[in-house]
Write a structure and sequence with these properties.
globular; D-Maltodextrin-Binding Protein, domain 2; 6-stranded mixed beta sheet; 10 helices; alpha/beta
């Protein structure tokens, strides 16, 4: 028996193990921050109904929140911090990107569209949902198409991609409108509800949630040709490969296991708190494609 050779092999194994351990401890970016503070901070929304909104106890809940919570569990396991503290910070369409960039928020769990312009500032998970941009109007308004908005007040939420879409379509249709802005989706919808605006242009899934949650849902209709198909993703800091790896692995794992479809059914096809409304937004071919062919390329 060649003891020196075995001893050398064992020493080599020990060296590799030690190197692997050292490598595992060489955390960087978000994971390093989380490991040092034993805290992770999630950015949440107040009125992205179905995705990230406040329940009856003012707790952020929804489809995007559940996905972020799954990522948090993966981070707990990888960092071996079972008692990791999870804090939440309310964000808006206007401040969500700066708060992620500046480190106040580690992951934004809301209804953020992954665009190529935004990807220059932050990073995104693979698409978790795809939707169309349309408009909500009062059902008795007579408005059916974008052209019907001529000389009317059209509202959208400040800091969203819908603003540029409205302006582009106004130029294409050669019509004039009066632009208005809401501080959040609830405020924008209120402007239509109160008659201050004729239409609210936004992601059709968010419009469906707002209508379902209205006092009299039959008073409203989501109408018009889709202005664009876009996509939601979980947002986090750019140039952070360790965080990117754990986010992508977790989200793609949820696609493959069927867990993502279960969450979709939970939040978009069955009654949700606090009023037990049902958004009833059927699962589209576009979203199924996002799950089948994961992509973070943006629009």
């Amino acid at each position: 028996m060649n003891f020196p050779r075995i001893a050398l092999c064992l020493a080599g194994v020990g060296f590799i193990a030690a190197g692997a351990a050292a490598q595992a401890q060489a955390l960087d970016g978000t994971l390093k921050k989380v490991a040092e503070t034993k805290t992770i901070t999630l950015g949440t929304r107040d009125s992205s109904i179905g995705f990230s909104y406040l329940d009856g106890n003012q707790k952020p809940v929804g489809y995007s929140m559940d996905i972020c919570n799954k990522i948090v569990e993966a981070i707990k396991t990888q960092l071996k911090i079972p008692d990791l503290k999870v804090e939440t910070v309310g964000v808006t369409s206007q401040n969500r990107i700066p708060l992620v960039q500046g480190g106040t928020v580690d992951m934004e769990c809301g209804s953020t569209t992954n665009t190529t312009d935004r990807a220059k500032q932050v990073a995104f998970s693979p698409d978790i949902f795809r939707y169309s941009v349309r408009m909500v109007v009062r059902a008795d308004s007579g408005i059916k198409t974008f052209a019907d908005l001529k000389d009317k007040t059209v509202v959208t939420t400040s800091g969203t991609t819908s603003d540029a879409l409205i302006k582009s379509n106004v130029r294409t249709a050669s019509i004039s409108i009066k632009s208005a802005y809401g501080k959040d989706h609830g405020d924008s919808f209120l402007q239509v509800e109160s008659g201050r605006a004729a239409a609210f242009v936004m992601d059709d899934i968010l419009l469906a949630g707002l209508v379902a949650n209205a006092k009299n849902p039959a008073d409203f209709a989501v109408v018009g040709e889709p202005l664009k198909t876009e996509n939601y993703a979980i947002m986090f800091r750019k140039d952070d490969p360790q965080m990117k790896a754990i986010v992508d692995k977790t989200v793609i794992g949820m696609f493959n296991s069927g867990e993502m479809e279960k969450l979709y059914t939970k939040w978009l096809l069955t009654p949700i708190p606090p009023r037990n409304i049902t958004i009833n937004y059927p699962l589209s071919a576009e979203t199924r494609d996002a799950w089948k062919n994961p992509s973070d390329k943006g629009v």
